[in-house]
Amino acid sequence: xxxxxxxxxxxxxxxxxxxxxxxxxxxxxxxxxxxxxxxxxxxxxxxxxxxxxxxxxxxxxxxxxxxxxxxxxxxxxxxxxxxxxxxxxxxxxxxxxxxxxx
Length: 102
Hints:
Blueprint: H1 4-7, H2 11-14, H3 52-66, E1 70-74, E2 82-83, E3 90-91, E4 97-101
Antiparallel strand pairs: 1-4, 2-3
């Protein structure tokens, strides 16, 4: 039996700081987190969580309701340099935004 909590906090996959909140870990290409199966909250294959599709749909519906209630604007206007251009473009050094509740 695979324990998701153990896999999602395994130091060999996520590093010595596996128990700490670090959203930047997803940008580190040298770790096992690049593997799409490394974050195993829903698992994959024949034993995949039966609520996965519903959970993803529920998350999208929540975003559709929440995001329009906010206004986003870049703090520093100018050229944005990209790191590793791909279908998901990531700005080098992040992108600072100001968020205002409407």
